Amino acid sequence: MNKIDINLVSAFVERWHLETSSFHMLFGEMSITLDDVSCLLHLPIRGVFWSPQDVTKEVAVELAVDYLGVSQGDAQSHVRSCRGSCYKLEWLYDLFVQHRAASSWAYATRAYLLMLVGSTIFADKTFTLVEARYLLLFTDLDRCSGYSWGAAALVTLYRYLGDASMFSCKQLGGYPTLLQCWIHKYFPTVGKRGENWKPADNYGLPRAMRWSYRQGVLKVDDLRPILDELTPADVIWRPFEDQRAWRQFDELCLYKGCLKWGDTVVPYLPDRCLRQFGYKQYIPSPPLDCMMATDIDVDWIGYHQSVIAVIRPTTLATTPSDVEDGYLEWYYCVSHPRLVPPHHEIQERYQFLFMTPDHLILIGLVYLH
């Protein structure tokens, strides 16, 4: 977390709507998509979802014995110290070092991979623990590549963004580096960043490696009006086109439906951010109710049908920020994306946003400290 610009991330979190899995900007919706995860982190998006078993403390102990090469006594002592079915990331690193020195490669690999996902895509709000159930992903190392790790990262981040967008929540779990790099990629004028390397000289590397950490000086109060004043021209709508030669676009990214990982289910709605895929944005259908979804795995496998439904009503964009007639009028009727009252000259342009006081909707704003 000491590599994250907390104020920058917070300014975007308070624009997140969990019903639509998107950030509501003044000019429409945007989201972190499967394509973004693929290009920023180079995680595979194709693969199966994972539905784990419930893991008790006793099972956590047995998993550590069987798959991490720990003695029964040490495993019991460690799980007891965690006060739950978890392992400490520091403990996993020590196991990795020990097993690597002993050439116990299977144990070392599992300890490393569990530590890796526990400190990145599956990070919880402790940022020191990882749930023991994730060790089930690595019991058979030959099967690891069969999971949709990109979807796993996205589901986890969507879930924590939904929590953090609530006023009562003060922390963000998941992989905030993914969110921050997404901001850097799409909004080049927002936030402070350093350059590790130039993309043209490093063709095959994940784009999230491009930036080095720079702490911004702007607070959330300073960033709100800056984000409110952004226009479509300030956005790089298709930031990964220069790397398609080695990271091709996968039409699976246009799948519309629910994504799941474990017991978490979230809506994934590319029809609400079509400009990020090079299409003209139309008025999307109402959000999905994932609580009613029953055949997510079937829908995921048969994604072609949903892709056709997403792109059939639209055409390729003539300019990157193309929208259909009536889209913005509809959008301002269903959303209240401006967080700071506009200046008088701007107010006339968006006067339909600001009706009488009886019509105003108060938006809960969350700070991440």
UniProtKB/TrEMBL annotation:
Pfam family name, one: PMD
GO annotation, biological process: meristem maintenance
Listed InterPro entries: AminoTfrase-like_pln_mobile, MAIN-like
Domain Aminotransferase-like plant mobile, residue spans: 3-331
Protein known as: Aminotransferase-like plant mobile domain-containing protein
Gene source species: Pisum sativum
